[in-house]
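A quick aside before the break. I want you to see a complete sequence-to-structure record at least once, exactly as it would be stored in a machine-readable document. Don't worry about memorizing anything.
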Amino acid sequence: MKCTVCGACCVAPDISALNKPAGVPCDHLLADNKCAIYEDRPLVCRQYQADEVCLETEAPTLDGRVRRLTALFA
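That is the input. The structure line, written in tokens, reads:
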């Protein structure tokens, strides 16, 4: 599945490699929802695959997508 650059994957899950708790935006998430350390991002980020939450029309906002991903990962 293609990334929609919604940024939810950088907010909803915890990313222990970056000491990022669930529901908190990653320190490296830029205003355009891209990663400031993309070339050097941790393995867990490299392995993440976009899923159906990225394509949901019911959650067109970042907050809506974050709530769905948090529900899946929490």
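Two observations worth writing down. Helices lie at 43-47, 62-73. The mean pLDDT is 84. We'll return to this after the break.
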